[in-house]
Amino acid sequence: MATTLAKAADGTQSATHAARIEHVSKSFAGPAGQQLVLDDISLDVAPGEFVTLLGASGCGKSTLLNLVAGLDRPTAGAITTDGRPALMFQEHALFPWLTAGKNIELALKLRGTPKNERRERAERLLELVRLQGAHGKRVHELSGGMRQRVALARALAQESRLLLMDEPFAALDAITRDVLHDELTRIWRETGLSVLFVTHNVREAVRLAQRVVLLSSRPGRVAREWTVDIPHPRRIEDTAVAELSAEITEQLRGEIRRHGQH
Amino acid sequence: MASTDTTPKDAGDLAGLNAGLDALESVQAARRPLRQTLTQKVLPPVVAVALVLAVWQSLITFDVVDDPTKLPAPADVWHVLEKAWLQGELLGYIWTSVSRGLLGFGLALLIATPLGLLLARLKLVRAAIGPILSGLQSLPSVAWVPPAVIWLGLNNRMMYAVILLGAVPSIANGLLSGVDQVPPLFQRAGRTLGATGLRGTWHITLPAALPGYVAGLKQGWAFSWRSLMAAEIIASFPDLGVGLGQLLENGRNAGDMAMVFEAILLILAVGIAVDLLIFSPLERRVLRTRGLLVKS
């Protein structure tokens, strides 16, 4: 079911890259003149690939995600994506004047889904995130984890080939986050979506991704990449996850330490 | 915690885990029972009104005020009201003023809504007339009555002009602050969903700004009603028909304090009734659907 969801999006042959980031730099006007936030970043996300962008504060990972989402323009370089990507935020960003189901239907409406199909598709998407029966629920009636699942369903309603996620589980408690990791992995495998997932949580990055990209801070540069070939289902307490996390954490600490030295 | 839970290898287990979390964390919102509504919401204001009446009556009974041209007895005011009702005039007074008030408010709504949106969207327009508009809010609308009479004469058009000058700034400012308070996150979320330009205004900005807009409407009605009463009291003229403001002025001219009290009570009652029947339910509905109504 889920694969047909993604296929129906454009019906065309998918491109060779879900996202291609080529020599992208971004600077903002700051108090001390132009401040370079991202410096010459190049990164490809293959169709169906799950990539996590990892970095400490100030590495510009959210800035990079905004650029890929098209909410901002790079100062230099080019970004191409396979269609308009969907974006999920740390806050659920659901519209409180609409019910859970109507939030999803609005996304469908804005992408041009005919009126008579919206309700049924919204129900199916709610089923996909295990919220069948929540169509008429108000946002404030849902728990934090349920809100993020509705937000995920709304993002999936855009039927993009690429899903961008900006620390979507950072505000949740550990148990809920752990369950949502499993759900996201399941949905990613069912839909064949490409995911670019930003986080500062090393274990989260290792648990979810096929590839972890570590960014250095101020300015953000690609410091190192790891391919994660631990088989699914992965657990946050798996030895393999813990070992790779330790290695990446060591590197991340090195990146942070550099900033204290000058 | 991760080490103690069972590894959910199959989907059914994960679904069960999810359902459990959902059940544990969802808030159950119950509506207030009727009895509680009566004792907590209805009873206190009724008691307060009864107290005011008791104090009023005791002022008369114990001869603290013994001049009926200064303070009529509650019973006298009741008789005046009763007489106006029996003669079929009471609803006429009320309708004359209420129809003017609502029509004027409707016009103010039609003018202020696009004005507020324009101010919210165009920085230059806002810089130019934003301060004037907020300044106008603090100008008592009674100040507009003399110029309105000179410009438009003693007629209904004058009344509407005074209402508009009172209500338009309130409604436009309410909408403006509503738009200002729309969280940027909603705009960003809207844009990623493809709601840009007019579609963004319609699907995101307007519904997100609705609480501020409704607050502005509520205030706009209060201003409309006050402006209208000021206009009716100052510019009373037989040809205009007797509204509540004229009734008050007629009572003063006749030295009939019971009639003055009758008019004041009716003006108050209409103001409260419109708020209670139209604006408060509207506001509560808007806030409740958003989960913004904090239950005390």
TrEMBL record, chain A:
PROSITE patterns: ABC_TRANSPORTER_1, ABC_TRANSPORTER_2. SUPFAM superfamilies: P-loop containing nucleoside triphosphate hydrolases. Pfam families: ABC_tran (PF00005). One of its GO terms (molecular function) is ATP binding. CDD domains: ABC_NrtD_SsuB_transporters. Residues 19-244 form the ABC transporter domain. Keywords: ATP-binding, Nucleotide-binding, Transport. This is ABC transporter ATP-binding protein.
TrEMBL record, chain B:
Pfam families: BPD_transp_1 (PF00528). InterPro entries: MetI-like, MetI-like_sf. Residues 94-278 form the ABC transmembrane type-1 domain. It is found in: Cell membrane. Keywords: Cell membrane, Membrane, Transmembrane, Transmembrane helix, Transport. It is a multi-pass membrane protein. GO terms for biological process: transmembrane transport. GO terms for cellular component: plasma membrane. The chain crosses the membrane at residues 42-62, 101-120, 158-179, 260-280. Belongs to the binding-protein-dependent transport system permease family. This is ABC transporter permease. It comes from Streptomyces sp. R17.
